[in-house]
């Protein structure tokens, strides 16, 4: 951007029009730039090399009020922000059922309950039930908590 940085533009836009959702489409892969944009009020962060389908999905997630992070960066970046390296597998004691884990993995990747229900060929209520039980087992209370757990256990690494 020739006249101002993406961070400055986001800050100005959010100050003038706080209801506007900002999805950053960038070449920057470093954690510092991501942090600056999120602190400025961006709701999403997608690398320019992302596939067109990923861009469409990111736009839909942000438009619904969600937060979207490029899957290629999520594990690396949020793992560092959390101060823990991503691990593989589910920690002992979590005891999620296979379906609960499958639902949480899809949630962590930004899918809605409706999209998950369609993909798994179950009702939305079934997805909500699996989600609620899994969240209770893990002690998380939001989609952000699900994403943090997914990063911690390595579900988002490798695409």
CATH superfamily of the largest domain: Winged helix-like DNA-binding domain superfamily/Winged helix DNA-binding domain
**Do you know the CATH architecture of the largest domain?**
Orthogonal Bundle
CA-based gyration radius = 16 Å
Number of domains: 2
Low-confidence stretches: 83-93
Mean pLDDT across every amino acid position? 81
Q: Would you report the number of β strands? A: 3
Biggest β-sheet: strands ordered side by side in the sheet: 1-2-3
Structural class: mainly alpha
Instruction: Give the CA-based shape.
Output: elongated
Sheet with the most strands, sense and barrel status: 3 strands, parallel
Range of strand content: 5-15%
Please report the distance between the alpha carbons of the first and last residues: 29 Å
CATH-derived topology of the largest domain? Arc Repressor Mutant, subunit A
Number of DSSP helical runs:
8
CATH C-level of the largest domain: Mainly Alpha
What's the SSE pattern?
HEHEHEHHHHH
Q: Helix share of residues?
A: 55-70%
């Amino acid at each position: 951007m020739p006249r101002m940085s993406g961070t400055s533009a986001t800050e100005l836009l959010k100050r003038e029009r706080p209801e506007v959702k900002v999805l950053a489409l960038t070449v920057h892969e470093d954690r510092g730039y991501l942090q600056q944009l999120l602190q400025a009020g961006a709701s999403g962060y997608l690398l320019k090399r992302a596939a067109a389908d990923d861009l469409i999905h990111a736009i839909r997630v942000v438009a619904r009020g969600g937060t979207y992070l490029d899957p290629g960066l999520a594990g690396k970046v949020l793992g560092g922000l959390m101060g823990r390296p991503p691990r593989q597998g589910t920690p002992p004691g979590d005891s999620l059922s296979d379906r609960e884990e499958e639902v949480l993995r899809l949630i962590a990747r930004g899918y809605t309950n409706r999209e998950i229900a369609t993909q798994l060929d179950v009702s939305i209520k079934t997805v909500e039930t699996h989600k609620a039980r899994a969240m209770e087992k893990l002690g998380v209370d939001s989609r952000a908590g699900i994403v943090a757990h997914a990063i911690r256990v390595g579900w988002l690494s490798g695409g």
